[in-house]
Specification:
With about 600 residues, this protein is α+β, with helices and mostly antiparallel strands. The protein has a seven-stranded mixed β-sheet with strand order 10-22-21-20-11-18-19, with helices on both faces. Strands 12, 13, 14, 15, 16, 17 and 23 form a seven-stranded antiparallel β-sheet that branches. Helix 1 (about 1-10) packs across helix 2 (about 20-30) and helix 8 packs parallel to helix 21. The longest helix has about 35 residues, at about 500-535.
């Protein structure tokens, strides 16, 4: 009854599925008192459904996890004193206090204080942004190291974080249900079976012979081949560190013709590195980096840790420092080996040492490149520049060529970073189409435009800001080490390693899996057609027909299981390391 009832409900909803013939065979076996034949068909049908559920799995509650991470409390300022209130109670124009280590609860404009703010959850960009009066930040950004007083620009329910939640929710709700490979074949095989069955009954006058036709025509290859192949493909992908969250994703990935990549953290390493040390005439690069690392040891700023790490990577031992004074988000100064050393932005050093701007300008030159720089002064004199960059991942050489070899017609780069840096990364990898300065909703708009045009779109990303686009694409693939929970939950598949070139492996495995599934289906249906002819002539009774169909199933399953095997990593990368690509900021020198 559950098998038949499921078919009836599907038919009532307009789903013309592969299990229609199986239900006719089950009902016919009951009416004509052929229990063994009917039970074999039931076993096949329920076994196939169980395999499909196992292959597909179940999506988890991505939106609930994202909502749970949203700020709940805001420190509202009343007559200069902070008062904790529910974030929904804050109105436009209210003043709030944001302490170090807290998420900014609403879209705000800073009115007092200085700090550094991590906006990577929203923009995907790893560089902290200096916060000072007049700076604007979106909700969900993380205040790092200073206390900020800010004016609310939008209530929590209309903030950027709330828009991301809603984008993920609407993308998942609007995603069209997957039409299974089996159902596409059933559209023509089921009517053919019913015609042959009806003709056999009409010409022979024997309903049992007609039942035999139904039993041998029960589309076991349709019902079993795809889920068995997909289970094999999922297991093979897992051995390459690619985790598919449901079988439908593997099936759809084999059909994609457009690939979209996020930039920072996906195609680049996602964190700043010291790309270049430019010393003044009286210093060497190593000496400048060593002195800067000495004073940066006393700072908690992410770029300070980068400088210290770069010094140690060169075998330099940062000297001890004392009298450290830090201006949050601006710079840090102190005494190192008896010398006064300061490291920070242009405004910090020119305010600390009036007249140093001409020396800094001479060091900086007029190259016009977009880059994030820290300036170093020693004993009040310009000593050099430390330049930071976000490096393109080393394994991406040839990525575009390999994707095109698999049949993808278009590769696109989308980023929240500025257009100049986005274009630079695109050129380094060989991507011809790149779009920068995008918010999460802009990425979603790009994806939906392509999907609406009939393209099968793959989206690859790593950050919270990519989650809505991952949900909107035909297939979304996330890097597990990037955005964590919400990013992985919004995606259809996850790469356990920081290696986006494994997308090539995933597509290759998917296409081979679908090829084996189709091969199994065609061979199985061909054998079933031969058995139908024999049954219509009276040579195969229902019970024998059911057993014959199970023998065909064994062959189909064994062939489909080949999807679990294969040699070599079809997405193998290379070891050449591309040069760093500078990353700019609004405050870049």
């Amino acid at each position: 009854m559950p098998v038949v009832w499921s078919t009836v409900r599907g038919a009532a909803a307009g789903r013309f599925a592969a299990d229609l013939v199986a239900s006719f065979a089950i009902v016919g076996s009951v009416l004509l008192v052929q229990p063994l034949a009917g039970l074999v068909v039931v076993l096949m049908q329920t076994g196939g459904e169980a395999l499909e559920r196992y292959a597909e799995g179940r999506a988890s509650a991505a939106v609930r996890e994202l909502e749970a991470a949203a700020p709940r409390i805001a420190h509202q300022l009343e007559r200069g004193e902070p008062r904790d209130v529910a974030v929904d109670a804050v109105k436009v124009g209210d003043l709030i206090l944001v302490r170090p280590g807290e998420l900014i609860p609403c879209d705000v404009e800073v009115v007092d204080g200085s700090s550094s703010v991590d906006t990577s959850r929203l923009t995907g960009e790893p560089m902290p942004v200096p916060a000072r009066p007049g700076s604007r930040f979106l909700s969900g950004s993380l205040n790092l190291d200073g206390v900020l007083k800010a004016r609310v620009l939008a209530p929590a329910g209309e903030s950027q974080y709330a828009r991301i939640v809603e984008l993920v929710r609407s993308a998942q709700a609007s995603k069209s249900p997957l039409q299974r490979l089996a159902d596409r074949y059933a559209v023509w095989f089921t009517p053919l079976t019913l015609v042959v069955c009806g003709a056999t009954w009409a010409l022979s006058g024997d309903p049992v012979r007609a039942l035999a036709v139904l039993v041998v025509a029960t589309p076991c290859p349709l019902i079993l081949a795809t889920p068995v192949a997909i289970i094999g493909g999922i297991n093979r992908a897992a051995r390459h560190g690619i985790i598919f969250r449901h079988g439908g994703a593997l099936e759809q990935l084999g059909q994609v013709n457009v690939a979209i990549f996020d930039k920072t953290g996906t195609l680049t390493v996602g964190h700043p590195e010291v790309a270049q040390v430019i010393p003044a005439r009286l210093f060497s690069a190593d000496e400048l980096l060593r002195l800067a690392a000495g004073v940066e040891q006393g700072s908690g700023h992410p770029l300070a840790r980068t400088v210290v790490g770069a010094a140690r990577a060169r075998g330099l031992v940062p000297p001890e420092s004392r009298d450290i004074v830090e201006a949050p988000g601006q710079g840090v100064g102190g005494r190192v080996e008896g010398r006064e050393v300061a490291v920070g932005g242009w405004d910090y050093l020119t305010a600390r040492y009036p007249g140093i701007d001409q020396e800094l300008q001479a060091l900086r030159g007029s190259d016009g490149r977009a880059a994030l720089r820290a300036f170093v002064a020693v004993d009040g004199q310009a000593a050099g520049i430390i330049e930071y960059a976000d490096r393109v991942r080393p394994e991406l050489e040839g990525l575009v060529a390999r994707l095109r070899a698999l049949g993808l017609r278009r590769v696109v780069l989308l980023s929240g970073d500025d257009q100049a840096n986005t274009d630079a990364v695109a050129r380094a990898i060989g991507i011809e189409e790149a779009h920068g300065q995008l918010l999460p909703e802009d990425k979603v708009a790009h994806v939906r435009r392509l999907v609406k045009a009939g393209e099968k779109v793959l989206m690859v990303g790593d950050g919270t800001n990519d989650a809505p686009a991952l949900s909107s694409a035909t297939v979304g693939i996330a890097l597990a080490s990037g955005g964590g929970g919400i990013t992985a939950e919004a995606a259809d598949a996850v790469l356990l390693a920081d290696d986006p070139s494994r997308v090539v492996t995933a597509i290759a495995i998917s296409r081979r899996t679908l090829g084996l599934a189709r091969q199994s289906i065609w061979v199985g249906l061909g054998l079933s057609a031969c058995a139908m002819a024999a049954a219509s002539l009276g040579y195969v009774p229902p019970t024998l027909g059911a057993l014959l169909q199970e023998a065909i199933d064994v062959g189909v399953i064994l062939n489909a299981l080949r999807a679990a095997t294969g040699r070599g990593d079809t997405g193998g990368g290379v070891t050449a390391v591309p040069p760093p690509v500078p990353v700019s900021r609004q405050t870049a020198a």
